[in-house]
């Protein structure tokens, strides 16, 4: 009934205006005035109630002007003007209700589609149960087309999931057996089994629903400007109306001033624009807990970011594998992965993942034993393989060199030993997010003037990440309490946004004007403390949210400002006698409708700082990004060949020939395809034929060094490289490794991060 009331009120006032007008036109003006007056009198009640409600809430609402205008038209017998004001008030409320309902449609859909049923395995097979009955550890069946009811781990077969409703990503994502999945996503492939790791109340989607329910538009600071506006606008309106009456002696002029002064467009435009902004952010996988947070996000000037899990992936990745004499990189990685597949350690998972991606030797381990603090040991093809800390008593010059290198790279070391001797070392590091550099550039374009990294990590690690990203200031080795103090200090200077994901970030998120949580993999504490939650594990969604926030705030202020400017002009014209009450009512109605429709522009998508990528170019970006991942082992091979040049020439020749085959058969065709297909598309997209020139120059250098390497292999003949070739050959191999590594990184940051779909 509450939702129907605005339409009922509008219907009655329109009927009164229509019937009264018709009666006046057919020669029954007396009866027409009665009907028009009735419509006016009926409108006084709701308008007076709105004023009383505002006063009870501690606000002086400008709806008081509407009540005075209605009463004034009755007093001076301007019944047509009164009926028009009644329609204007009812129409404004109905239009505002429609605007809010449409603006919140995406948020409403978000919690209305919450999972309600699950298929739980029992003795006689899967049985449909209420999702509230699911407990941790239950084995569930997720049929094709069904929603994942609770958070869990995929078992039996891989899952293909549509995450668009939760994250905004268009394409389904495949999750292999053992991967964790979140509730609220839809099974886009065949049925699969899920082991529940949470209850429905604890699941990811339930958390998103709670955030959506907290979202309100009427709490934004820009909306509350209406209350401050009423403090001077109401007395000014009464003064102008009284002055017009006193100078002219005509009460009708005072009524005309009151008519065009109400209702205030600020009360209608600002909530509609802010609510529209909340809807747009929800579509991009960002839940904003209220209009106040959205409005503040739109005027932020300082950005404070945690490092681990925010600017970086939050999980270690293998960055290099160095093999000792007598071993190769694929063998070292394969041995380590064979043993570590049986371990639950986070580094073990990273090594197993790297073996799958880089093609480690497919070994199988037996009799695996894990010792906390030391590592994992197992038997592989009759050899005792240990993965973890270096064997006690071993400390060669080669090992010292690898430790020094790891320290310079801020990397962790995992030693692989075979039968007590070191076979190699694996270097791991928490890599910078691929979308982080572009996101920070977008945020600076959107108005962020200062970027601060705030982390509890070591200073040298933080500085290395900050150098890559161009951060203005680094605060490292900070405790949670020190993080809070730092955020408060930044907030005292300018409106500040804090972004984090861990439990230790929660106090700092609460201390900022706007706290943003990486909700996809972040802690529940940070999500609860934050004002904004990114439901997908992509930092660029923050830039999208800021684009929406700034646009919504700009449209709200613009709509209200233009509307009130027009109202003020109309008030002066009415005071001078140039605008009778009936015409003024029609004019004010037009102003209100115009500002609300303008406010609804915030619902429409806008480019903002995001570069729109067409579908064919997007497909090319993803194709070459996947090829980069497949070519990573080739980069390792280049370095391995360079390191092996100190060995006997006859043993290095097969490796050099293999490197040459990989270059000519895989790397160079990839670079040529980029040059012929990707770069022309990017030049058109960026609107600059020179945009890819520097990358083309890198292609030319790669081709030159590859040709130089081919010449060395030819000169080596069948006996291997000659002594006089070694130095230049080593420089050639290291040069190729350096250029390709840098070139890959540049392309991934500058180009592949433009892709619109998830990694």
From TrEMBL:
Keywords: ATP-binding, Cell membrane, Membrane, Metal-binding, Nucleotide-binding, Translocase, Transmembrane, Transmembrane helix
Subcellular location(s) of the protein: Cell membrane
Membrane topology: Multi-pass membrane protein
InterPro entries: ATPase_P-typ_cyto_dom_N, ATPase_P-typ_P_site, ATPase_P-typ_TM_dom_sf, ATPase_P-typ_transduc_dom_A_sf, ATPase_P-type_domA, Cation_Transport_ATPase_IB, HAD-like_sf, HAD_sf
PROSITE patterns assigned to the protein according to its UniProt record, in alphabetical order: ATPASE_E1_E2
Main location: membrane
Protein name: Heavy metal translocating P-type ATPase
Organism of provenance: Nonomuraea helvata
Biological classification of the source: Bacteria, Bacillati, Actinomycetota, Actinomycetes, Streptosporangiales
């Amino acid at each position: 009934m509450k939702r129907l009331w605005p339409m009922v009120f509008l219907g009655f006032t329109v009927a009164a205006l229509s019937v009264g007008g018709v009666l006046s036109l057919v020669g029954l003006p007396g009866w027409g005035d009665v009907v028009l007056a009735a419509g006016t009198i009926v409108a006084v009640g709701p308008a007076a109630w709105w004023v009383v409600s505002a006063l009870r809430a501690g606000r002086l609402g400008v709806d008081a002007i509407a009540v005075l205008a209605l009463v004034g038209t009755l007093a001076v017998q301007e019944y047509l003007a009164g009926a028009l004001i009644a329609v204007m008030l009812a129409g404004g409320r109905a239009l505002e209700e429609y605007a809010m309902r449409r603006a919140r449609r995406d948020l409403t859909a978000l919690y209305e589609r919450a999972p309600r049923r699950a298929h739980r395995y029992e003795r006689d097979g899967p049985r449909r149960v209420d999702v509230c009955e699911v407990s941790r550890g239950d084995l569930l069946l997720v049929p094709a087309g069904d929603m994942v009811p609770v958070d869990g781990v995929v078992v039996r077969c891989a899952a293909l999931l549509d995450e668009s409703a939760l994250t905004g990503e268009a394409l389904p994502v495949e999750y292999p057996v053992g991967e964790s999945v979140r509730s609220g996503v839809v099974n886009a492939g065949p049925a699969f089994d899920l082991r529940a790791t949470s209850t429905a109340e604890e699941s990811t989607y339930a958390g998103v629903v709670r955030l959506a329910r907290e979202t309100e538009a009427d709490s934004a600071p820009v909306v509350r400007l209406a209350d401050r506006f009423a403090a001077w606008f109401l007395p000014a309106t009464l003064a102008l109306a009284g002055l017009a009456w006193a100078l002219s002696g005509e009460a009708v002029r005072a009524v005309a001033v009151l008519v065009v002064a109400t209702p205030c467009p600020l009360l209608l435009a600002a909530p509609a624009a802010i609510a529209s902004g909340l809807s747009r952010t929800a579509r991009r996988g960002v839940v904003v807990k209220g209009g106040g947070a959205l409005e503040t996000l739109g005027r932020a000037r300082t950005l404070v970011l945690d490092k681990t899990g925010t600017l970086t992936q939050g999980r270690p990745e293998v960055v290099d594998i160095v093999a000792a004499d007598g071993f190769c990189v694929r063998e070292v990685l394969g041995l380590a992965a064979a043993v570590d597949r049986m371990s639950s350690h986070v580094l073990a998972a990273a090594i197993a993942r790297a073996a799958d991606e880089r093609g480690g030797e497919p070994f199988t381990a037996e009799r695996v034993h894990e010792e906390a603090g030391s590592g994992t040991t197992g038997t592989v093809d009759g050899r005792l393989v240990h993965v973890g800390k270096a064997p006690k008593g071993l400390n060669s010059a080669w090992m010292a060199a690898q430790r020094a290198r790891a320290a310079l790279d801020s990397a962790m070391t995992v030693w692989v030993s075979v039968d007590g001797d070191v076979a190699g070392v694996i270097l791991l590091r928490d890599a910078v997010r691929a979308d982080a550099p572009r996101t920070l550039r977008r945020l600076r374009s959107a108005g962020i003037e200062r970027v601060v990294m705030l982390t509890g990590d070591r200073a040298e690690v933080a500085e290395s990440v900050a150098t890559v990203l161009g951060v203005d200031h680094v605060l490292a080795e900070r405790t949670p309490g020190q993080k809070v103090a730092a955020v408060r200090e930044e907030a005292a200077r300018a409106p500040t946004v804090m972004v984090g994901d861990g439990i230790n970030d929660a106090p700092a998120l609460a201390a900022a004007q706007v706290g943003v949580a990486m909700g996809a993999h972040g802690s529940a504490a940070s999500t609860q403390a934050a004002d904004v939650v990114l439901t997908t594990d992509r930092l660029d969604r923050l830039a999208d949210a800021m684009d929406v926030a700034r646009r919504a705030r700009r449209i709200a202020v613009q709509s209200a400002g233009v509307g009130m400017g027009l109202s003020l002009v109309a008030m002066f014209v009415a005071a001078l006698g140039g605008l009778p009450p009936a015409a003024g009512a029609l004019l004010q109605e037009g102003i209100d409708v115009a500002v609300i429709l303008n406010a609804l522009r915030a619902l429409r998508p806008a480019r903002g700082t995001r570069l729109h990528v067409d579908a064919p170019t997007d497909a090319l970006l993803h194709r070459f990004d996947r090829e980069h991942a497949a070519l990573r082992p080739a980069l390792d091979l280049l370095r391995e060949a360079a390191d092996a040049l100190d060995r006997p020439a006859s043993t290095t020749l097969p490796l050099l020939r293999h490197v040459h085959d990989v270059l000519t058969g895989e790397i160079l065709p990839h670079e040529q395809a980029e040059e012929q297909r990707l770069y022309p598309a990017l030049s058109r997209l960026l609107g600059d034929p020179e945009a890819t020139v520097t990358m083309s120059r890198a292609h030319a250098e790669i081709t030159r060094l590859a040709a130089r390497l081919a010449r060395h292999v030819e000169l080596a003949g069948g006996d291997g490289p000659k002594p006089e070739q070694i130095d230049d050959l080593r420089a050639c191999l290291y040069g190729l490794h350096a250029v390709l590594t840098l070139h890959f990184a540049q392309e991934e940051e500058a180009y592949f991060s433009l892709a619109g779909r998830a990694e």
